[in-house]
Design brief:
Helices cover 82% and strands 0% of the residues. The chain contains 12 helices and no strands. It is elongated.
Length: 200
């Protein structure tokens, strides 16, 4: 399972820290760029290997990987999709979304709209990464929304991985430090809900 894999990687990482870090970053970026499932497992491993530094790394790698996916879509897919789904179908969903992006951009609220989409639990992030350049979302607001909007999820999952690395028996769970970490993870998981209610 993930815990045993992380334990083996920790042993290898102790001897080859830079190599493991580079391989992890490369694999994470590859997965994000091509929208391959598996973020949860990688986040748990990052937390188990690097703790809080793993949270920071995953947050940045998520933003960079999402931006690489954005750029691939912009170069190879956006022109064709714009002609086929926006210009040819002005009343379709993509065309309506493109108009909404232009409206939010003119009002100066595009960043908040993108953040809402990231925090909304039913928005497929892979679809948002691919569709953003098609509907006219600029790269920098897109990158910022990916970093900030997915940070709560990344923090919760990497800290869960860090916690797994320290728990070896049920007695460990009852330690005050472990209970405090569990409470912090639970509180962090409520951040998206709080932000959505605040922006509602």
């Amino acid at each position: 399972d993930v815990r045993h894999l992380a334990a083996r990687l920790r042993l290898y990482s102790d001897a080859h820290r830079e190599r493991v870090g580079l391989l992890f970053a490369a694999f994470f970026l590859f997965k994000q760029t091509f929208s391959i499932p598996g973020t949860l497992a990688l986040n748990l491993i990052a937390g188990s290997l690097y703790g809080t530094a793993g949270s920071v790394a995953v947050i940045l790698l998520t933003g960079i990987g999402a931006s690489l996916c954005y750029l691939l879509s912009k170069v190879f897919a956006a022109p064709l999709i714009r002609r086929s789904w926006i210009t040819a179908r002005p009343h379709g969903r993509l065309a309506r979304l493109a108009r909404r992006v232009r409206r939010e951009s003119r009002a100066g609220t595009l960043a908040y709209y993108l953040l809402f989409l990231r925090l909304f639990p039913f928005t497929p992030n892979w679809l948002l990464n691919l569709a953003a350049p098609v509907v006219g979302v600029p790269l920098m607001p897109f990158f910022a929304s990916a970093v900030a909007g997915l940070a709560p999820y990344n923090i919760v999952t990497t800290q869960a991985g860090a916690l797994l690395a320290t728990v070896h028996s049920f007695a460990d769970v009852l330690q005050p430090a472990t209970i405090a970490k569990l409470a912090a993870v639970a509180a962090a998981s409520l951040v998206p809900v709080w932000l959505k209610r605040r922006n509602a």
